[in-house]
Amino acid sequence: MPNDALKPASLPVLLVVLTITTGLIDAVSVLGLGRVFTANMTGNIVFLGFALARVPEFSARRSLAALAAFLVGALIGGRLGTRLDRSRRRWLLSVAVIESSLFFGAALAAAGYDRAALAPVARLYTLIALTALAMGVRNATARRLAVPDLTTTVLTLTLTGLAADSRLAGGGNPRWARRVASVAAMLGGAIVGGWLVLRESGGLGLPLVLTGAITLIATVVHVASIADAVN
Question: What is the pTM of this model?
């Protein structure tokens, strides 16, 4: 854990904003890349199982490509966290630049890509690889930050906490606002992403550019609020 401002107040806000981009990427991957998740590997493993069971419209190759790229991204994200451990500012900025560059690169790759035909195949797998790579970096970073209920990509435990820790269950309902915000953020991102992907004149480029821009801008704003004690 970086030692220069352990958990500033703006960190949960950053993670909620980044959760919006997960909804955007889920829309891009599931609706535009042929039933594959590049952000949510739980869903991707399930899709892989469907593909291996020869369920129509699912592809083991696409799921495995996403899984492999995600693992490489997680490795890179873990390495960055270890090497830049003494400066949260430098660490988060580096991660944001890498992620946003991958998203912007994916947006360029989306030019000329036919979502309905999943073609050209080279562009399809480039899009899968770039987005999964970015989300692997994202997940490794969020894991290292270890902010409760804000993983940015998975909501199962968040929803469980809302119910299991509620007053109806005899709990004190801790962090309910954060949990609700996380759910709302991903839902909102999915709604916007779905609309952008499926609208008649749209495509994958705009949601990918939006994801990259949100990632970079939100991180820069957060980093500006950190008093970096160790450069």
Answer: 0.92
